[in-house]
Amino acid sequence: MQHFESDYLEGAHPLIMERLSATNMEKTPGYTVDVYCDEARRKICKACGCPDAEVHFLVGGTQTNSTVIDALLRPYEGVVAAQTGHINQHEAGAIEAGGHKVLPIPHEEGKINAASLRSYLEGFFADEAYTHMVNPGMVYLSHPTEYGTLYTRTELEDIAAVCHDYKLPLFLDGARLGYGLAASNTDITLETIASTCDVFYIGGTKVGALFGEAVVFPRPGIVKQFVSIAKQHGALLAKGRLLGIQFSTLFTDGLYLKISRHAILMAERLRKTLEEKGYEFFIRPQTNQLFIVLPAEKAEKLGREVGFSVWEKHNDGRTVIRLATSWATKEEDIDTLIGLL
Amino acid sequence: MQHFESDYLEGAHPLIMERLSATNMEKTPGYTVDVYCDEARRKICKACGCPDAEVHFLVGGTQTNSTVIDALLRPYEGVVAAQTGHINQHEAGAIEAGGHKVLPIPHEEGKINAASLRSYLEGFFADEAYTHMVNPGMVYLSHPTEYGTLYTRTELEDIAAVCHDYKLPLFLDGARLGYGLAASNTDITLETIASTCDVFYIGGTKVGALFGEAVVFPRPGIVKQFVSIAKQHGALLAKGRLLGIQFSTLFTDGLYLKISRHAILMAERLRKTLEEKGYEFFIRPQTNQLFIVLPAEKAEKLGREVGFSVWEKHNDGRTVIRLATSWATKEEDIDTLIGLL
Amino acid sequence: MQHFESDYLEGAHPLIMERLSATNMEKTPGYTVDVYCDEARRKICKACGCPDAEVHFLVGGTQTNSTVIDALLRPYEGVVAAQTGHINQHEAGAIEAGGHKVLPIPHEEGKINAASLRSYLEGFFADEAYTHMVNPGMVYLSHPTEYGTLYTRTELEDIAAVCHDYKLPLFLDGARLGYGLAASNTDITLETIASTCDVFYIGGTKVGALFGEAVVFPRPGIVKQFVSIAKQHGALLAKGRLLGIQFSTLFTDGLYLKISRHAILMAERLRKTLEEKGYEFFIRPQTNQLFIVLPAEKAEKLGREVGFSVWEKHNDGRTVIRLATSWATKEEDIDTLIGLL
Amino acid sequence: MQHFESDYLEGAHPLIMERLSATNMEKTPGYTVDVYCDEARRKICKACGCPDAEVHFLVGGTQTNSTVIDALLRPYEGVVAAQTGHINQHEAGAIEAGGHKVLPIPHEEGKINAASLRSYLEGFFADEAYTHMVNPGMVYLSHPTEYGTLYTRTELEDIAAVCHDYKLPLFLDGARLGYGLAASNTDITLETIASTCDVFYIGGTKVGALFGEAVVFPRPGIVKQFVSIAKQHGALLAKGRLLGIQFSTLFTDGLYLKISRHAILMAERLRKTLEEKGYEFFIRPQTNQLFIVLPAEKAEKLGREVGFSVWEKHNDGRTVIRLATSWATKEEDIDTLIGLL
């Protein structure tokens, strides 16, 4: 059985495991105020090109989204997101549990765009009754999106310009950020993101870490006492150094990008084969997630030998499945998979 | 200037004002445990044909919606509603403030239907990841809807049947219930509603009262200590008897239906004229709200002499406006309005 | 049976009922943006000596407390209050429902004091772990307190000075404010309150209105879009003018103070008799609430002829009861009560 | 510098690190539905003597407390706890963020007792106004407490009996459970806890794991879809197997108790020396936490060579400090520390 269900099937990159073991019996203060977290912060600031950035380490994606969103919104404000945004679909109401509505706007392949964002905002504030409605208080996007698609630098800057016009902070969910940065045809770098977004996170869980997300506020001072909001969310890890060690390792010698690039290369080999064999893509693959459309019986047959995610029903009754590569995908597993297709 | 902006422009029906004045200096206990509330409860139970119903009196609609919904849902559950439902649009996030997501489903003229509800529920629970998503925990509908449209008895029963299959309580928002019950072509009565819904409310604010909504649980015991949840929502009126007196008056000698019927007759006169003069309806009028589509300049011109609500932009750029009649609309005001059209 | 259970047993002052009736069939816009609300706002601003104050009209006390507190606090902040504060005891968790902890500090006869407040704040911020705790974000006090006691001007200014040092907004719950302003030995006026507090409310429900509380922000701009937070709390009355008419009447020709003074005079007559007859006061009466300690059997006997509130068990097993006068208390009812004591 | 600040200074027990490394490149499904979690569940069920128990794995203590409490309470209910309970002091409002009040009752050395619990509950429900107050909906205790003290079996059973009488679930916070089970004079075992409590958790973070808390519902079915509530709280770890592997290791060959016992032995050596040298205990030590009272200057001097937690100011102005041993404390570190005392 080959497993391509997701990009978080394995543990951590071996260098991380080594460093966790090597430091295991050291004693450090808790709650991310230790030398390893500071070391990781410095490296991340440098990689983002913003030496004064405020960096926080949280454990998982849903937790990070709800903590950041609660930190930025006032009670009557909501977060604008693609209908398909993770916060709108797969977080069991974590955002609403904080009292905030997700305000869905249309998307294309998981991406929002500046024009529809502006149109929504114009319409909203033109409504005489807008004070009786949930006010847009920030904008959320994911890069790569839940469909593995990518924003271009221009698209991102255009969205940021709209946010700027309406004084809305822009939040980028980077749960799979590595796979976006390492993609073959992207003009977006960490520096791009740091200069256009008000807050974003660098995903560790899906990109080489056991767990962990690094939240970056490129321009500090936006949120007061973020650490208290994280604590309130149960998001402050007691042995915080585990996060520092992991992110420090990922941001040493370009490891984060290097292992992300591997996942992309594996995905591209897979994409090429799928194309050659005439498989139909649900969405043109750009990163490490490949969505293909299969007749139900074919999906079932393939499912006996290959693990994948059943994504949704296509509107013609066929099944959309997702195959995901990761930093840990082995060349020979791709070979085997290709043999089975 | 004629005013047709809404159905809550005036105070209360004169009989209510009289009775409030007549009882003004009486002393009663607070918080809806007084003889007038009990009197109103008995009359409402009788009108609903369910002698054991549990009846609570709250002040306003948004408050009632959020209190009832919080009372019924578990933390990870949301409330299924039409995209256009009041709770999804015009309550400034009151539902989300209670920690719950509104789960919008498609609508036709403000109405959900049994088929799309069932389809949504089937799809939801077929998703392997449903425990990571906000679970549908109840169904909300408004009758009349925000567009003044009405369910038929069959439609309501079909929706109730789906709810029953999925063990979801059905909640009917009756902020304008009188205008629904008094409509010309409806087969829905208070008894119908009481026998199909798990909880609903009889709107007073828009139908003859100064304020007030009577929440009815036809089969008691569904919610424990509803009064505490109301108190927590700031929805328990100190001088609760004001609600009892108003609803007791409304449910004496059929006043509630009688004054509602007047609004319908006024709306029908208006509709007839609008039809004759070739106005285009945005939605076929069924109750006391009339939505018409006007070119922007015409809307502006009319707006100088008639107060109405600007509802939304039509997709062709014209303006959708709403004219509302009410229990208080005077024959001569309709005459004047007709002259201006 | 004589009734002294509370100060909200009757309806409204007759002048209010008259004006509500006189304006009943007028048409006004909803949600407190009408001429009567504006009229009331102007009168309140004048009475407070702050022409630029921001004034909002809400329906009840619990609702007002939770709305104001949610408007002022960030997620990890709580509200400092006397252990006996209404928000800590009798609001069914309305403050916690908004996500905020009530941080109780010691009190004397229901009053907090500047020294213990400062001591609490010093201790709090001296704790290394304070970011892991609920941070004090504002201070709440009630005037008169839940025990009918009053702050002096100096006491209030001292508390405000501490709040100022720690940059904490000071919120005064004036559910019974009239009875405090009209007390015999007070040096606190509306102007005093407006110049020392950041937000307070003028209680209507217990002082002559059918319902209603006027929230005053003496220096506007502290809270953005308060109206949206009120709407979210279900606290925005559709027929908002009912509040405007009531408060405009209460603030015409000094009615608010005049009727409050009546309650004080009634309470003072009652106090004098109780003293003469040797009743033991639980707390020295200052306003319209009289707390006396009775043996259980005596309380029971009195309870057959007089309605009162059972307040708490005294620590010696006797019962503490409360007798309340109000704007509506009749001279002859006091006579009758005195005869029964 | 010697470090005795807390029991979570180091990483994990070496056997855990070994097993994490050994399984690192295996592929498993996420979110705690993997073979390692199942293995850990079976071992925990066995250790608790309840084969049908429902076991969930969460990441940290605050998160676990807020998730369990939200899962058990209705909106208007609160959680009864010692004034000193962790949920009331050091969770930055995580419980209130879920909408629930912590209802503090008196404690002795961090412990609540059956008599004062019963007295509180009797008083609460005797109050006529109890529906206007936050209702006690469950009882929380920690074992060991925040002061390192322990309940006896009888004390725990008596509390459980009160809970049973009032139909309140009893929740035991076992963040340091191992150190309680391994204490020298305790008659409480895992089986005792499983038979008296409705839900409890076995702390991993402070007892040998990198992180992780195992929530046990001895009698399943109390909470529906706990996993969704955990997800909503951001408490569901993507690579859930990390928790399974850790708890499986801790519950193999009695490791959990064995390493806990080591901490107790180290604490007892330390206690003996402190006694001999005449140090004054703030609280008689029972587990791995030792609280001593020091003059400020002595605390400062000691602090130059030994890391400890400053706990609170003693009421005589001296400082209460905490020294904590753990599974990882080395014999020689105790020797060194003893030399410094």
Keywords, separated by commas or semicolons:
four-stranded antiparallel β-sheet, 2 domains, 341 residues, homotetramer, 18% strand, globular, alpha/beta, Aspartate Aminotransferase, domain 1
Question: What does the model show?
Answer:
4 copies of one chain form a homotetramer. With 341 residues, chain A is α/β, with parallel strands linked by helices. Chain A folds into 2 domains: 2-8 and 255-340, Aspartate Aminotransferase, domain 1 (Alpha-Beta Complex), CATH 3.90.1150; 15-250, Type I PLP-dependent aspartate aminotransferase-like (Major domain) (Aspartate Aminotransferase, domain 2, 3-Layer(aba) Sandwich). In chain A, 40% of the residues lie in helices and 18% in strands. In chain A, the strands form 3 sheets. Chain A has a 7-stranded mixed β-sheet with strand order 2-8-7-6-5-3-4, sandwiched between helices. In chain A, strands 9-10-13-12 form a 4-stranded antiparallel β-sheet. In chain A, strands 1-11 form a two-stranded parallel sheet. In chain A, helix 2 packs parallel to helix 11 (241-250) and helix 6 packs parallel to helix 7 (153-165). The longest helix of chain A is centred in the last third of the chain and has 22 residues, at 255-276. The radius of gyration of chain A is 20 Å and the shape is globular. Chains A and D meet through helix 1, helix 3 and helix 10 of A and helix 1, helix 3 and helix 10 of D.
State the gist of this model.
Chain A is α/β, with parallel strands linked by helices and 341 residues long. In chain A, 40% of the residues lie in helices and 18% in strands. Chain A has a seven-stranded mixed sheet, sandwiched between helices. A four-stranded antiparallel sheet of chain A has the order 9-10-13-12. A two-stranded parallel sheet of chain A has the order 1-11.
